[in-house]
Design goal:
Oligomer: single chain
Shape: globular
Number of strands: 5
Largest sheet: 5 strands, parallel
Radius of gyration: 16 Å
CATH superfamily: P-loop containing nucleotide triphosphate hydrolases
Number of domains: 1
Strand content: 5-15%
Order of helices and strands: EHEHEHEHHHEHH
Strand order of the largest sheet: 2-3-1-4-5
Distance between the termini: 35 Å
Amino acid sequence: MKILCLSLGRNGTQSFNDFMSQQGFTTTHFYEFQKVAVGSFKEDADGIEEHFNSLPETDVHVDIPTCLIFDRLYERFPDAKFINITRSESDWVASMRRMLKRLDYVNDPFIFEEAYCNFYSNTGKKIIKDLTDSELMFIRNKHLNKINDLFAGKDNYLEVSLDDPKIGEKIRMFVGGKVEVPFPSSDAFRKDRE
């Protein structure tokens, strides 16, 4: 079974990856973006899909590149399970800012940063940390609207809030998991709060 997480990063994606691994699924979370050279893939949907195709074959895919081309992946894997984890807009923006502050780079973009900055609107920016809060919120809202348009009424889609105390149970039941473990995982969630 293929399981694809549609959530943009900073929506519990590391916790989701850990949780799915504990359920016995093989996972690919994000990619080792520091090790993939800028320009090795085009900064558009075709390049992102090409990168997806280069990843290891696993049961679960989380974060970039998956979240940016979920519509294409739905066409390829219509029988997959699709999960979208959300959190409030203000919490998400604050989490993005904390993460961007921790990233150890000056002004050189990582692969797909330019795509992220311009996927839903042409901001003209190449580095996520240069996005304004308003631009981040616009990207988030366009992303959620696109998900809602595609998955409305589909029974292989689950949307859960990171604040839901039963989030782990809902995800576990949706994917047929057997192991009761906390979600979000405390280590990943604590890093998000730093």
